[in-house]
Design goal:
Elements (H helix, E strand, L loop, with lengths): L3 H9 L8 H12 L4 H12 L16 H10 L11
């Protein structure tokens, strides 16, 4: 059994074991610029725009599922946004 403190420490400094497969694949694709052609096309459009305006109805207090899927696929860490600590 994992103590609450040990679990909190793992969440504070995640290892590859705790990361999902999609985030590991996203890191690899960003590092090697090897996105799928359809995702690369959407990334190129996103990076070319100066302002992105998203207009949509609120569905259950969130974005529509199709837009959420687009966010998950196209907004790649290190490519579409970065986290500075």
């Amino acid at each position: 059994m994992v103590s609450a403190r040990a679990a909190a420490d793992q969440l504070a400094a995640p290892s590859d074991e705790l990361r999902s497969g999609s985030s590991i694949e996203e890191d690899f694709a960003t590092a090697h610029s090897e996105f799928a052609p359809d995702i690369q096309q959407e990334l190129d459009k996103l990076l070319a725009c100066e302002v992105l305006i998203l207009q949509f109805p609120l569905c259950w207090f969130s974005v529509p599922a199709i837009l959420k899927g687009w966010f998950d696929r196209v907004f790649a860490l290190g490519k579409a946004y970065e986290i500075h600590q």
